[in-house]
User: Fold these one by one.
Assistant:
Number 1:
Amino acid sequence: MTAPLQGIKVIDMTQVQSGPSCTQMLAWLGAEVIKIERVGTGDPTRDELLDIEGLDGLYFLQLNCNKRSIELNAKTPEGKEILTKLIEGADMFVENLHPGAADELGFSWEEVHKMNPRCIYGTIKGFNDDSPYANVKAFEPVAQCAGGAASTTGWWDGEYNVPTQSGAALGDSNTGMHLVIGLLAALLQREKTGEGCFVQQSMQDAVLNLCRIKLRDQLILEHTGVLKHLPEYPNGKFGNTVPRAGNVEGGQVLGWCYKCKGWETDPNAYVYIVLQNEAKAFAEACTALGKPEWATDPKFNTPAARNLVKEEIYKGVEEYTITKDKNEIVDVLGKAGVPCGPVLSMYEIARDESLRKCGTIVEVDQPKRGKFLTIGCPPKLSTFTPEVKAAPLLGADTNAVLKELGYSDADIAKFRADHVVCK
């Protein structure tokens, strides 16, 4: 049960979501993560979306478990000295400050590399250096729009035919996970070279990577003029870019989200069902759905034929689903080999015992607050199970970290008096 990153020290100068999601993953995998926070205020998310006044917000808690916290004014000479000493003993330095901020502080990649050639430098920015938007601050929706997600998400016609951002954090936590991949690769590279490298991850790139199939669709559209798997085909018109796709599956199979029993009062009484192209699989689905005649009817029994009557198929399937509970449908269709799944609300997910058993949903005991619920470590390793611990109170580890760097009680008292660290 040895932690994969045991012995790795990370200096975390990130805030809000994209950077903290990355460094929290490193902490879960066993790294020692020291979070550098602004004196007096800390990470902005400590005070955002509060459910209990006077305590750290859930936004902060769910992104900063297993870390240590030091309040530090890195703009002061003494603060710069402390941060330099931390970097000199670190394996990674990670920041997601606005463009140019780390450079202005004196902690650019070049300077950090001089301080500690073995230190890997990770940075998150909205856009790559060569982008015309390189100096633009990027938030979650900005990245989703610039990365192609918003233009291809949502309804393709009617009043709601507008670019739509996903409820998933494609711009923030997704970028953090992409940076984790780069940092771990850099760590392996250092084993061979002995030297750290610069790892930059743009939010636009991270979103675009998840939109890879939409670029595929763009190329198909340019070559053929149509996208047969999208709702517009065969009766609608296609322009010169990939339209929004509603609830289609995205590959050349029929996938759709269907109403289930109780949909009138429950906004999540829905199930997603995919009808596969293979004749045997399609026939089995037809039988399970109470439409065995579709398997032999030329109007339905080939993928090409089904593409011409998608709306009729959607209507026919919903005649089955609307009379049954979503979990009952998944049970019946799942046994018949039909790819399907219920639409689960956050209320249902928070109470899912199977997710708690495997450590995906975790209850954490937080100082001052008590227990709160969070998402645990997504990858499951056979040789290591992370213990998800509390997020640090603001500046809770300031004294301990400074003493580890060799500072005396008198030094620390002076730092406090000069507002280099917390009061």
Number 2:
Amino acid sequence: MPDKIIKIQIIHSLARNSAKNETFQKGVVDKAVDQKLVVAAYHEQAGNEPYHEAMLGRYLFSQIERLKTLFADYLTGEGNLAEDATIDSTETDGVTDILLSVSDRFNNGFVKTLARLAQKYVEDRMVYLWWLPVSKEFAALYEKAAEDDLQGIIRCFSKKAPQAPTYDFPTAITLRYPLLPPVPATVPEADASGTVPAQTLFANPFIIAKGDSTEISYTLTGENGRMPIDDIIVRCDNACCKPCITSNGRWSLKAEKAGFTVVTLFSRHNDNVHASFAVRVTP
């Protein structure tokens, strides 16, 4: 199954500011309830103090790494849509890029959703770690929020049904060149299935001199008149001729030695799609 790469960005400044905003509300409420809690509220609110910034920075990068390991834990393995999980992570200008290799069946409509949930997961985990030493009650709220974020991330990788092919295979093949010589009236034409009887081929071979090459030209018919892909293979039942593909992608025959062979063109995807002609190689 082919893979594709999606990119998720974690913006550091956004994560820090979101954590500060989340902690600010509790401090405001505490000060409004009791002015004696002004000092406590100051320390509750994640601000621009150097040690606040240091703590938030520690939480930020540890949770980004946690997110990457969760991608590997939850989103790989049999039945999932991340074939290689985290394949790269770079940090430039305050942004961490996480690249994921996912199955071609991953729904592209979830890429932005996945990116936003990943950003929120890091932010909720940062606030959870901020409150954990001082308020188990508040920490539990953000732990639950982070778990909800993670469940949303996992649902982004839910499977969709396999897509139907967007291409058609041939339903018939018609030879154009080498052209079969005129068929004598006493020799039967091709039957309803398109098969040319052996006696027709033997009675009317295409003549080619040893050492020469000739291109095989044919027309393909697709279902309901649509143009099919060219999946034709050529085989010879005698080594006097050798089929090969030219530099322009067309099948040709090279006469190796004197002899007689039946050349068959057939579809790799449909046993009923084939055409044959005979070739006699002259010395």
Number 3:
Amino acid sequence: MKTIEPKTMRKLVVTTIAVLTIIVVTMFIATCSSNNADTRNSFTPQQQLQLSEQLDSIAAHLDDSTKIVSRISNDTQYGIVYMKGGRIYLYDAVENTTNEINPYKMNVAARVSQSDGGILTARVDADENYILMVAATGPKTIERGLYRYDLHRKKLTVLSVGKVEVNGSGFIVYEKDLEIHFNSSGDKISELLHNENIEDTDSTDINEDKPVKRRRSEQVSEEIETSEETPENILKEAETNLEPVPRLDNQ
């Protein structure tokens, strides 16, 4: 019987392991693809119709003091997000349950002052993954909390606390020294230093036709320079520059 050399044996072992690895990886990918397909097709057409009718029925029975934020309908969830009395709720048509989304109970850093308005505004992102909400955090009207609720993971994140402004489909939050921009999904897209001493003026940029922002110190120095050219100062300067006029003697 012919023996296999050690070098040849090692090659066979390596080749066998490589083939088995490829088979395992291929099976794993096929299994994942099958699971994803099952997830995407989790509702049959009949179920989708039934869930849509449930949403219609719930929406019709909400009273006038309720504001519907968004109606959610996709391959994994059917529901209605609505606000009432400074609180926000999620009706789940699949489970046929209604639950309050209480930011503070999910995250103690997410302060909500019900006496100052509670949840003030809310919106669902275009992909129906998150609820972005702005909440009153206390009596200071300039301070708000921008929070994000994950509809899939059921978790709440504090994005920022400060002066919150709607910016198109996203938000701008002015913190103490920062200006932070968020997109419609609550992802931070930019952050820059915010100088509170910058103000809008009436002057415009010739090229862009936009208000020019200047520091207060620059405006004050310009006001000082301008104030020095008063009528009294001009008169004094004229008096000091006067030369004697020769006297004409007729004799």
